[in-house]
Amino acid sequence: MPINFPLTVGQDFAGEIAQCGKAVQRFKIGDRVFGFAEGAYAEYVAVPESTVAALPNSIDFATAAALPTAGSTALQLIRNFVGARPGMTLLIHGAAGGVGSFASQIAKSFGSKVIGTATGDDINYLKSIHVDDVIDYRHERFEDRVPEVDAVVDLVGGETLARSYSVVKKGGVLATTVQPVDEAAASRAGIRAVMIIMKYSAEDLAELAALVEKGALKPRLAQTMSLSQTKEAQELSQRGGAHTER
Questions:
Q1: Which phi and psi (to 5°) does residue 118 adopt?
Q2: Which sequence spans correspond to the domains of the chain?
Q3: Euclidean distance between CA atoms 230 and 41, whole angstroms
Q4: In terms of Cα–Cα distance, which of 153, 146, 61, 148 is closest to 106?
């Protein structure tokens, strides 16, 4: 993306409204909110009303700050592109990561069966959120373990994505966030393949908050760090040392 310096990074936030513009209708000063901002690694951000949702009192700020990007991506993947429902079986690659853990829980809340790929400590984590079956990708090839599935959610890309077309039932769907899909491979397999880019939606934020409130969705919070630790937090995220960062 084209950018200009100096630049304040960060996209997801949670906090209280300190000031309202004249056109704001849904919120007032002091309201608890969360959503998307440009330059969220800051004490204050200016945001449009369209990218913000009310934050219920039962949800703390740390939990809410982990929701917007990863949660909205997962919700749009599972609801809009996969169309998860009872009776469906989904294979989710990277199921224990930020987007993957949300996608696994959202799919379960919609009544679908979920098979996830993971390794190490992530295997027990996926079992703790009631993923139906977990494949240790370091020791097993998912093609050898899964029957044909209704959908694959790919959050890994590369070889994993390339090997996934063959395990989707004819008429099924493969959705990825990582790289462009192979239209020829999808056509040969008789499936629909899509690469998705998350869109900002206040309505989706509200749906995520509702799922958290009823206990169907719980962010995997690795640790909470102060604003003065922004550099360390960003480096930890880039090294893949945290599952969900704020």
A1: -165, 180
A2: 12-66+221-238, 69-195
A3: 7
A4: 153
**Contact 135/117 with Cβ under 8 angstroms?**
yes
The full DSSP string for 36-83 is: E-SS-SSS-----GGGEEE--TTS-HHHHHTSHHHHHHHHIIIIIII-
Q: Is 208 helix (H, G, I), strand (E, B) or coil?
A: helix
CATH 3.40.640.10 is held by the domain 12-66+221-238: no
pTM (2 d.p.): 0.92
For the domain spanning 69-195, the CATH number is: 3.90.180.10
Tokens 């239209």 label which residue? 183
pLDDT one-digit tens code per residue, 79-133: 999 999 999 999 999 999 999 999 999 999 999 999 999 999 999 999 999 999 9
Encoded tokens for 234: 């960003």
Residue closest to 59 by CA, chosen among 209, 208, 236, 177: 209
